Amino acid sequence: MTPPIRASSLLKWKDLNVSPNELRLDTLRCGQSFRWKQNNGLWSCVLNGRLVVLKETDTSVMYGEWEEDKTIEKDLRDYFQLDKVSLSECYERWSGIDPNFKVKAMGLKGIRILRQDPWENLVSFICSSNNNISRISQMVNKLCVQFGPKVATMDGEGFYAFPPLDKLIGTQDQLRELGFGYRARYIAQTAAQIAAEHPDQKEQWLHTLRNVSFDEAKTALMRYPGVGPKVADCVCLMSLDQHEAIPVDTHVWQIAMRDYRFNLTGVSKTKTLTPALYKAIATNFRDLFGSYSGWAHSVLFTADLRSFDDRIIKEKKEKAVKKEALIGEVVLKKLIVPDPVLDQDNEHDTHVRRSKRQRKNTIG
Question: Locate the HhH-GPD domain: which residues (predicted)?
Fold first, then answer.
């Protein structure tokens, strides 16, 4: 079957009915998912075997359709966890707990944790080792183009689904040629190991880790090549419903040391992120934010990304302008509020002048 050829100009837009405090599409570029493409205000990606296109408005998020598909909205609400977590309530609670979070959150509304496909999420974060967001995105795109099925062409650009596990078994040499380096072996071996251990379920087995404890899920993931504590925590948080997972890297370590006075006695005097220090930082964040601590941690991490500096500054300026306008409105109302005493005096003066004119007219 030939993949359909689409034109973004023919999209029919529907409203997700989600406020800016609950979702902004910058969530898609903060290091969780690496396949969304942004062009001319549109965000595009293959999700659950179909091409999905989103755009942001001042008041909501819209999704596009070429023909009616009643499952798109359901899939998107699940992907963004819109019916499971009230982000505005979480922001309010975290801001009450932590003054630093309150400051950072001022310029970062609507940053959510995605609920991704666990297999794609696992392979993507195996690629993340000693890497940056831009290069990870390039590597994941290569995986899709080389090994995934083509789903559609839109405005001349091809869109591919993430490759199933079977397609990545035995691909070590090909991945090395594509520039994956030592990660090539990790990806190919992880695919082969999961297939051998779970021949009936294969990558679908990963979904069962949503129904076990955080510790069980993390331990299960760390049995695979290229999966250390950070990769396991990312997968637990971003695809396995383990909301207390705290991925710790050098950025999060810097945040912990710079912005928080965590109890790191005995583990802080080191130049490397040791397992003991990793565990201590994660535990302190969990103790501070409680349930959904991984979500709070993600906002702090995003606020530390240079690519978000412009947005943070813009939102803070907008809030300052709104605050000044509100103050001006209050002052103006105070200026025009009628003074009862003054009004009575004015009425008395008017009455006196009117009486004098009447007397003058009568005498004349």
Answer: 127-292
